[in-house]
Amino acid sequence: MAGVEELLQEKDHVFLDFDGPVCDVFARLPSSEVADRLKRLVGPDLPADVNASADPFDVLRYAASCGPNTAHVVERQLSRLEGEAVALISPAPGVAEVLREWVAQGFTVTIVSNNSVDAIRSFLSLHELAEQVRGISARTTSDPARLKPQPMLLDAAVRALGTSPRQCVMVGDSAADILAARAAGVASIALATTPAKRRALAALSPDALVTDLADLRLAG
Ligand SMILES: [Mg+2]
After folding, report:
1. Are 218 and 9 in contact (CB under 8 A)?
2. How many separate domains does the chain show?
3. How far away, in angstroms, is 191 Cα from ligand 1 center?
4. Which of 108, 123, 174, 205 has its CA 20 to 30 A from that of 186?
5. How do residues 159-192 score in pLDDT, each as one tens digit?
6. The pTM is what?
7. Domain that holds residue 98
8. 30 C-alpha to center of ligand 1: Å?
9. What are the tens digits of pLDDT across the range 10-66?
10. CA 20 – ligand 1 centroid, Å
11. 3-class SS at 108?
12. Nearest to 14 by CA among 129, 133, 97
Protein backbone atom coordinates (compact mmCIF):
# COMPACT_ATOMS: atom_id res chain seq x y z
CA MET A 1 0.00 0.00 0.00
CA ALA A 2 1.25 3.47 -0.91
CA GLY A 3 1.73 6.33 1.50
CA VAL A 4 -1.55 8.14 1.83
CA GLU A 5 -0.02 11.57 1.38
CA GLU A 6 1.70 10.59 -1.91
CA LEU A 7 -1.52 9.04 -3.13
CA LEU A 8 -3.58 12.16 -2.38
CA GLN A 9 -0.98 14.47 -3.91
CA GLU A 10 -1.34 12.66 -7.24
CA LYS A 11 -5.09 13.35 -7.37
CA ASP A 12 -7.36 16.34 -8.00
CA HIS A 13 -10.68 15.05 -6.75
CA VAL A 14 -11.70 13.36 -3.51
CA PHE A 15 -14.82 11.18 -3.42
CA LEU A 16 -15.94 10.90 0.18
CA ASP A 17 -18.36 8.34 1.54
CA PHE A 18 -21.02 9.89 3.82
CA ASP A 19 -22.04 7.36 6.50
CA GLY A 20 -18.89 6.89 8.56
CA PRO A 21 -16.44 9.53 7.37
CA VAL A 22 -18.85 12.51 7.52
CA CYS A 23 -21.24 11.36 10.23
CA ASP A 24 -22.69 8.27 11.86
CA VAL A 25 -26.09 8.34 10.12
CA PHE A 26 -27.89 5.88 12.39
CA ALA A 27 -26.26 6.89 15.69
CA ARG A 28 -29.51 8.19 17.21
CA LEU A 29 -32.19 6.51 15.10
CA PRO A 30 -30.73 2.99 15.05
CA SER A 31 -30.40 1.18 11.74
CA SER A 32 -32.15 -1.84 13.29
CA GLU A 33 -35.24 0.30 13.98
CA VAL A 34 -35.13 1.71 10.45
CA ALA A 35 -34.79 -1.81 9.03
CA ASP A 36 -37.75 -3.02 11.12
CA ARG A 37 -39.95 -0.16 9.91
CA LEU A 38 -39.06 -1.00 6.31
CA LYS A 39 -39.73 -4.71 6.84
CA ARG A 40 -43.33 -3.87 7.80
CA LEU A 41 -43.84 -2.33 4.36
CA VAL A 42 -42.69 -5.47 2.57
CA GLY A 43 -44.91 -7.89 4.44
CA PRO A 44 -44.85 -10.71 6.96
CA ASP A 45 -43.28 -13.44 4.81
CA LEU A 46 -39.70 -12.25 4.74
CA PRO A 47 -36.81 -14.66 4.19
CA ALA A 48 -35.12 -15.45 7.50
CA ASP A 49 -31.89 -13.60 6.65
CA VAL A 50 -33.76 -10.41 5.71
CA ASN A 51 -35.98 -10.72 8.77
CA ALA A 52 -32.91 -11.00 11.00
CA SER A 53 -30.98 -8.15 9.37
CA ALA A 54 -30.44 -4.80 11.08
CA ASP A 55 -29.30 -3.23 7.80
CA PRO A 56 -31.95 -1.14 5.99
CA PHE A 57 -30.14 -1.78 2.71
CA ASP A 58 -30.72 -5.53 3.05
CA VAL A 59 -34.44 -4.74 3.19
CA LEU A 60 -34.16 -2.41 0.18
CA ARG A 61 -32.34 -5.08 -1.84
CA TYR A 62 -35.01 -7.64 -0.94
CA ALA A 63 -37.79 -5.16 -1.80
CA ALA A 64 -36.18 -4.63 -5.21
CA SER A 65 -36.30 -8.38 -5.80
CA CYS A 66 -40.07 -8.24 -5.14
CA GLY A 67 -40.65 -5.68 -7.89
CA PRO A 68 -40.33 -1.99 -8.72
CA ASN A 69 -43.41 -0.84 -6.79
CA THR A 70 -42.30 -2.47 -3.55
CA ALA A 71 -38.80 -1.13 -4.07
CA HIS A 72 -40.15 2.39 -4.63
CA VAL A 73 -42.27 2.36 -1.47
CA VAL A 74 -39.40 1.06 0.65
CA GLU A 75 -36.88 3.49 -0.84
CA ARG A 76 -39.15 6.50 -0.23
CA GLN A 77 -39.66 5.48 3.38
CA LEU A 78 -35.92 4.84 3.80
CA SER A 79 -35.25 8.36 2.48
CA ARG A 80 -37.68 9.86 4.98
CA LEU A 81 -36.09 7.91 7.83
CA GLU A 82 -32.59 8.89 6.74
CA GLY A 83 -33.78 12.50 6.79
CA GLU A 84 -35.03 12.02 10.35
CA ALA A 85 -31.82 10.21 11.34
CA VAL A 86 -29.44 12.89 10.10
CA ALA A 87 -31.47 15.65 11.76
CA LEU A 88 -30.50 14.08 15.11
CA ILE A 89 -26.72 13.88 14.66
CA SER A 90 -23.61 16.04 14.30
CA PRO A 91 -20.68 15.82 11.89
CA ALA A 92 -17.87 13.40 12.76
CA PRO A 93 -15.11 15.07 14.80
CA GLY A 94 -12.60 16.77 12.53
CA VAL A 95 -14.48 16.34 9.26
CA ALA A 96 -15.13 20.08 8.83
CA GLU A 97 -11.41 20.82 9.19
CA VAL A 98 -10.38 18.09 6.75
CA LEU A 99 -12.89 19.31 4.16
CA ARG A 100 -11.73 22.92 4.54
CA GLU A 101 -8.08 21.91 4.15
CA TRP A 102 -8.70 19.79 1.09
CA VAL A 103 -10.55 22.60 -0.62
CA ALA A 104 -7.89 25.14 0.38
CA GLN A 105 -5.28 22.85 -1.20
CA GLY A 106 -7.18 22.71 -4.47
CA PHE A 107 -9.03 19.40 -4.24
CA THR A 108 -12.69 19.16 -5.10
CA VAL A 109 -14.79 17.04 -2.77
CA THR A 110 -17.78 15.00 -3.95
CA ILE A 111 -19.89 13.00 -1.54
CA VAL A 112 -20.42 9.53 -3.04
CA SER A 113 -22.94 7.66 -0.95
CA ASN A 114 -25.67 5.03 -0.94
CA ASN A 115 -27.68 7.29 1.34
CA SER A 116 -30.47 9.52 0.06
CA VAL A 117 -29.26 12.59 -1.78
CA ASP A 118 -31.89 14.71 0.03
CA ALA A 119 -30.76 13.61 3.49
CA ILE A 120 -27.13 14.31 2.63
CA ARG A 121 -27.90 17.74 1.15
CA SER A 122 -29.90 18.82 4.19
CA PHE A 123 -27.22 17.57 6.61
CA LEU A 124 -24.44 19.43 4.77
CA SER A 125 -26.46 22.67 4.69
CA LEU A 126 -27.49 22.44 8.33
CA HIS A 127 -23.88 22.01 9.44
CA GLU A 128 -22.42 24.54 7.00
CA LEU A 129 -20.40 21.94 5.14
CA ALA A 130 -22.12 22.47 1.77
CA GLU A 131 -19.68 25.15 0.69
CA GLN A 132 -16.78 22.68 0.82
CA VAL A 133 -18.61 20.07 -1.26
CA ARG A 134 -18.61 20.39 -5.05
CA GLY A 135 -21.20 17.70 -5.66
CA ILE A 136 -23.25 14.85 -4.27
CA SER A 137 -23.48 11.55 -6.12
CA ALA A 138 -25.89 9.58 -4.00
CA ARG A 139 -29.08 7.51 -4.01
CA THR A 140 -31.88 8.91 -6.13
CA THR A 141 -33.60 5.69 -7.19
CA SER A 142 -34.82 2.46 -5.65
CA ASP A 143 -32.55 0.32 -7.83
CA PRO A 144 -29.83 -1.23 -5.62
CA ALA A 145 -27.81 -2.05 -8.74
CA ARG A 146 -27.07 1.67 -8.99
CA LEU A 147 -25.50 1.75 -5.51
CA LYS A 148 -22.01 0.83 -4.27
CA PRO A 149 -20.39 -1.75 -4.59
CA GLN A 150 -21.43 -1.16 -8.21
CA PRO A 151 -19.44 1.69 -9.81
CA MET A 152 -22.34 3.84 -11.12
CA LEU A 153 -22.26 6.54 -8.42
CA LEU A 154 -18.50 6.99 -8.93
CA ASP A 155 -18.88 6.96 -12.71
CA ALA A 156 -21.47 9.74 -12.39
CA ALA A 157 -19.18 11.76 -10.11
CA VAL A 158 -16.30 11.45 -12.59
CA ARG A 159 -18.58 12.60 -15.43
CA ALA A 160 -19.95 15.53 -13.42
CA LEU A 161 -16.39 16.77 -12.86
CA GLY A 162 -15.42 16.27 -16.50
CA THR A 163 -12.35 14.39 -15.35
CA SER A 164 -10.94 10.87 -15.58
CA PRO A 165 -11.02 8.15 -12.89
CA ARG A 166 -7.23 8.37 -12.57
CA GLN A 167 -7.52 11.88 -11.13
CA CYS A 168 -9.89 10.76 -8.36
CA VAL A 169 -9.62 8.92 -5.06
CA MET A 170 -12.45 7.36 -3.04
CA VAL A 171 -12.33 7.52 0.76
CA GLY A 172 -14.71 5.15 2.51
CA ASP A 173 -15.17 2.89 5.50
CA SER A 174 -16.80 -0.16 3.97
CA ALA A 175 -16.03 -2.98 1.58
CA ALA A 176 -18.56 -1.53 -0.86
CA ASP A 177 -16.48 1.67 -1.15
CA ILE A 178 -13.30 -0.21 -2.02
CA LEU A 179 -15.03 -2.53 -4.48
CA ALA A 180 -16.94 0.27 -6.19
CA ALA A 181 -13.75 2.32 -6.54
CA ARG A 182 -11.91 -0.59 -8.11
CA ALA A 183 -14.78 -1.23 -10.54
CA ALA A 184 -14.75 2.47 -11.52
CA GLY A 185 -10.98 2.60 -11.97
CA VAL A 186 -10.64 5.01 -9.04
CA ALA A 187 -7.98 4.67 -6.33
CA SER A 188 -9.27 3.92 -2.84
CA ILE A 189 -8.36 4.84 0.71
CA ALA A 190 -9.95 2.69 3.39
CA LEU A 191 -10.93 4.43 6.61
CA ALA A 192 -10.80 1.69 9.24
CA THR A 193 -11.43 2.96 12.74
CA THR A 194 -11.60 -0.44 14.48
CA PRO A 195 -9.31 -3.50 14.38
CA ALA A 196 -12.12 -5.58 12.86
CA LYS A 197 -12.63 -3.05 10.05
CA ARG A 198 -8.87 -2.86 9.57
CA ARG A 199 -8.68 -6.61 8.97
CA ALA A 200 -11.75 -6.69 6.74
CA LEU A 201 -10.75 -3.72 4.59
CA ALA A 202 -7.04 -4.56 4.37
CA ALA A 203 -8.07 -7.93 2.92
CA LEU A 204 -9.55 -6.05 -0.06
CA SER A 205 -6.19 -4.39 -0.83
CA PRO A 206 -7.21 -0.73 -0.98
CA ASP A 207 -4.53 1.62 -2.33
CA ALA A 208 -4.05 2.99 1.20
CA LEU A 209 -5.55 2.50 4.63
CA VAL A 210 -5.90 4.99 7.49
CA THR A 211 -7.32 4.58 10.97
CA ASP A 212 -8.49 8.15 11.46
CA LEU A 213 -9.88 10.83 9.16
CA ALA A 214 -7.22 13.17 10.55
CA ASP A 215 -4.60 10.96 8.84
CA LEU A 216 -5.92 12.43 5.57
CA ARG A 217 -4.84 15.95 6.47
CA LEU A 218 -1.99 17.08 4.27
CA ALA A 219 0.91 19.07 5.58
CA GLY A 220 0.45 22.70 4.44
MG1 LIG B 1 -19.70 4.27 5.05
Report:
1. yes
2. 2
3. 9
4. 123
5. 999 999 999 999 999 999 999 999 999 999 999 9
6. 0.97
7. 4-23+91-216
8. 15
9. 999 999 999 999 999 999 999 999 999 999 999 889 999 999 999 999 999 999 999
10. 4
11. strand
12. 133
